[in-house]
Automatic annotation (TrEMBL):
Name the record gives this protein: Enoyl-CoA hydratase domain-containing protein 3, mitochondrial
Family: Belongs to the enoyl-CoA hydratase/isomerase family.
Pfam families: ECH_1 (PF00378)
One GO term of the biological process aspect: fatty acid metabolic process
PANTHER family attached to this UniProt entry: ENOYL-COA HYDRATASE DOMAIN-CONTAINING PROTEIN 3, MITOCHONDRIAL (PTHR43602:SF1), PTHR43602
Task of the protein: May play a role in fatty acid biosynthesis and insulin sensitivity.
Keywords associated with the record: Fatty acid metabolism, Lipid metabolism, Lyase, Transit peptide
Recorded GO MF terms: hydro-lyase activity
Length: 261
């Protein structure tokens, strides 16, 4: 146990940053870290003042995945392992389900469940010296749960390349594979990520929530079902006060004033 918080929260005019805070362990996702993340995400989901969430890491790395020392100390007990992976899956799903955009701000390494965290975020900005890998195959433990998020972001062959080789890839390769949105000079990473977060935070929060939910739901549907579903979403969205305000503002050549309804 430790008095040091596993996750640090900072709020800045609609943009909240959660910083993983186990720098000595390269922010490995221990039981405590996962529980702290789960609680923080639940709090942010209910906080109307938060428009956009940034997830970052303290120290030399973004996140090195699961805590292998903790796994070994737990003697790989089935009940403990089941609970750990279920908690990780819950956190990743909570990121996808969060009704606010989530941006991963990546520096150092993001490996195994750390790469899963990047892939689970809606957007990802990475320093030009960042590195990514799903190296479980190298230690006899295939990155099966990280595979879920990776296979929904990368092409199948690129995902399999990472999963089967376990090799570190650089930020430019991660960009080419589709794992991250932008490669930024390390000294500019925080500023660039915050600037983009603020740009998103200027949109209607209701519209962002509607759009994010619809994006992930339609992606799992057939083409015909996706169009049927999103047509209903747009028709319902059009009845919102923010949509009417946005259209009036556009036609009137003025800035919209969002009410979140």
């Amino acid at each position: 146990m430790t008095d040091t918080p596993y996750v640090l929260r900072a709020d800045d005019d609609g943009v909240t940053t959660l910083t993983l805070n186990r720098p000595q362990a390269r922010n490995a996702l221990s039981q405590g870290m996962l529980e702290a993340l789960r609680a923080a995400l639940a709090e942010i989901a209910a906080d109307a003042s938060v428009q956009v969430l940034i997830i970052a890491g303290s120290g030399p790395a973004f996140c090195a995945g699961h805590d292998l020392k903790e796994l070994r100390a737990g003697n790989y007990a089935p009940d403990y392992v089941d609970a750990l992976f279920a908690a990780c899956a819950e956190v990743m799903q909570a990121i996808v389900d969060l009704p606010k955009p989530v941006i991963a701000r990546v520096h150092g390494v993001a490996t195994a469940a750390g790469a899963q965290l990047v892939a689970s975020a809606d957007l990802a900005f990475a320093a030009d010296d960042a590195r990514f890998a799903t190296p479980g195959v190298n230690i006899g433990l295939f990155c099966s749960t990280p595979m879920v998020a990776l296979s929904r972001n990368l092409t199948r062959k690129h995902a399999m390349q990472m999963l089967l080789s376990g090799d570190l890839i650089d930020a430019d390769t991660a960009f080419r594979f589709g794992l991250i949105n932008e490669v930024v000079p390390a000294a500019e990473l925080e500023q660039r990520t915050l600037a983009f977060a603020r740009q998103i935070a200027g949109k209607s929060p209701l519209t962002l929530a509607i759009g994010k939910e619809a994006f992930y739901r339609q992606a799992e549907l057939s083409l015909a079902d996706a169009y049927a579903y999103t047509s209903q979403v747009m028709a319902k969205n059009l009845q919102a006060e923010d949509a009417k305000e946005g259209i009036d503002a556009f036609l009137g050549k003025r800035q919209p004033v969002w009410c979140g309804r």
